[in-house]
Request: fold
Amino acid sequence: MTAEAIMAVEHVEARQGAYADSVTLMQVSRRVAAADGVSAALVAMGTPLNLDLLDGMGFATPAGAGPNDLVIALRAEDAAAIAGALTEVADALAARPGGGDGPVAALPPRTVGMAAREAGAALALISVPGQHAFTEAMDALDAGCNVMIFSDNVPVEQEIRLKDVASDRGLLVLGPDCGTAVVGGIGLGFAHTVAPGPVGIVAASGTGAQQVLCLLDAAGVGVTAALGVGGRDLSAAVGGRSTLAALDVLDRDPATEQILVISKPPADEVAATVRAHADRLGTPVQFALLGPGQPDLTAATEELLRALKVDVPQWPHWPGREVAPRRGALVGLFAGGTLCDEAMLIAGERFGPIASNIPLQPQWRVDPRAEWDGRHVLLDFGDDELTAGRPHPMIDPSLRLERLAAYGTDPRTAVLLLDVVLGHGAHPDPAAELAPVIAELGGPAVVVSLIGAKADPQDLSAQAAALRGAGAHVYVSNAAAARFACDLIGSTS
Amino acid sequence: MKTLDGEPTLITAGADLFADAAQAQAARVVRVDWAPPMPGTEADLAAVMGDPRRAGANAEALRRVASARALLVDVVPAREALGLADRQLLHAGPPIEWARTSGPMQGALLGAAAFEGLVADPADAAAYYERGEFTLEPCHHHSAVGPMAGVLSASMWVWVLEDPQTGRRAYCSLNEGLGKVLRYGAYSPEVLDRLRWMATVLGPALQLAVRGHGPVDITAILAQMVQMGDEAHNRNRAGTLMLLRELGPDLVEAGLPSADVAAVLRFVGGNDHFFLNLAMPACKLALDGARGIAGSTMVVAMARNGTDFGIQVAGTGDDWFTGPAQVPDGLYLGDYGPEDANPDIGDSAITETIGLGGFAMAAAPAIVRFVGGTVSDALANTRRMYEITLGEHPAFAVPVLDFRGTPLGIDVTKVVRTAILPQINTGMAGKIAGTGQVGAGLVTPPAEAFGTALRALAARVPR
Reply:
């Protein structure tokens, strides 16, 4: 290696009156220092600080350089590298950042609170995983929003806290585990396209509300609002907090002529509190609180229609393949918990105890994953236990289809009872998934309660036709479907 | 319920399916770009979000910070203002013992000991610090803030700022300029000479000017400078000039030798960062008003000592929540590079804590290239900071955002929920004691500081 090869070449100059700001010059320095063959570079205004730095880098200070002069100091392996670096300096100083076409538009909000800050208080619909729902819901209440919590698996203490905070602030919490609401004419969650009308619904049951909405639709009657309050609202722990608040909201609404309260079997003392509260309101309140001796959803809807002086129609029904009653078990595979409850109440009157993963009596409980013992069994695939980590069966029918095939080919099965729920949020064409499986079964009769409104995106009558074509008996009334299914089971005694 | 009638607006967080369905029914839908919070924080978040005191406490914290006024009322030695003893030294950031201090912090502490005449040669001071003969405490524990190393000793002169409504005061040293300066850890003879000049000429001259002028409204200057392209952390050019405009005539009339007046004017006018040391205590003064509000999740201080990054929260008293300080990402002076830079240091992040500095990047287009390029990035940066703040400052308006107030009141819960960390504009000190400044850039706090702060807030929620 010759001495010449390791000799560095230096270039130092001061350009008078060539100003650039310090950030630009630091960027230029960085770019030039990275150029081929350059070992050190400083491009900076000749301030005392920078002249100091120049000295520290081992460069001679150019004579007379002052704060208004641009100092360029380069050290490189040869003259060609210096020339290249000077070109680089010129280019870098000439360059202007492209700018202006970047993300100037507002960024999407990251929290409900931020969204409300920008859009104003609104209704917040929260469907994040259950362990995060409380945080977003509380944020929404803080922002003055009413909240609908679709999420399930929310701890009951959190539900109570949210409802108490909402009550203090004059807001409403719908849910958690609120699958359905109609607010301001918009169907939320799993919802149907229904007309405005005189009925206000308070529902501690998503599919219960859907059944009533669809029956009213079949009768040509619309709603002011359907407020889902969450499946636990009428439990002893939650004590009807949102039901009472929702009743007050509807009572204040002049367009609401009749109110219907819908629930799965409630805690007795809570039901009594709600009934007492309803008695004090100006608007008449009907109840469909499922339980022994209580009206089913269809009967309650009929009562409501009579109160409105509307004729009760013949509920639509599409008869399926003719079958003779057959001995064996009733097997119900439901996506809607309330529809399952209603069917269990109806079947229980005929057959006694019905096994279920959501049993009417605790001792009738079965593990939905365990081997079937041949008893009458009605399962709810929408229960938390079966939806944790997977979509709701109204969206993803795969688990239910699997069970349908298994029970449907088991000789112990006399009748299969299914619900099929249409509307916004539900599967776009459930009949296309179900009909081929039903058509293959052969043995047991299949009875379907088809919960849908005329204007639903899936086309109610086309869905009915497809299911019927596969051999199923189709009813828009879940109670009627359950009664028919029971009728098809021959006496086992 | 408002939404029962009229056109409903829906805010959705979670499954897009429901947003799509509502939109298909002609509802106005605002979709939240939701993501899970920092891992392992769910239970603490739920506890804190459920704290019945939180909303009221945060509203009160915001009110106090937003309504605070900072008046410059005096300039005096730290001995007088803070009651500092000879062997008592203050530093930036959370508490730290000598053994863990970084190079620039050590350099500044050595220089300050020599400046105070405690040792003849700065190098001799190390042994005293090791033996604990000089006491070390954070500036923040004395209502003060210090940029970079933030070292304050008894003979240094400090700005005295006061909130006329509460009588509360905050303090900060006088800015030394750039380059080889004590706050960046340099302690050569020229550094000490400058400090002596500041204590004998600059401080007394400014005292006469301030006393002659009467209180100077620093909050008002901050509000104006934000509209003039300063974000009050890395850029204080307009603020410095406005201060000169205020104090210049009184300085001239103070009866000092004209050479001293000229030297002071030259020194102040030649240092674009001079006003930083007034911006910082003004922010400190306002934020201190929110200290100790039980249940509040608002951050009241972010500070670094060159080793640890610490935050303090309104609802957790004077506790510090720390994590390792990061090396800023930025541009370097001369041929310095990332290997020369010390981890983040200084109390100057108090400006970000109140929503200036990195939070107000949109107001300071002249320095946005520190963010990595464009004005658009700066706008996005400021907008992103609204996600983690409780409100907007009523006085600090950003013209390019249609005079929207700067993001105010960092909320621990929002940082944890969004994993968006506060953006801080900062200078960089050389990691070897005595080096001085090596660059400037951007840095964020360590995320764990917010996780531990949240845990402490959760532990204080009444059962």
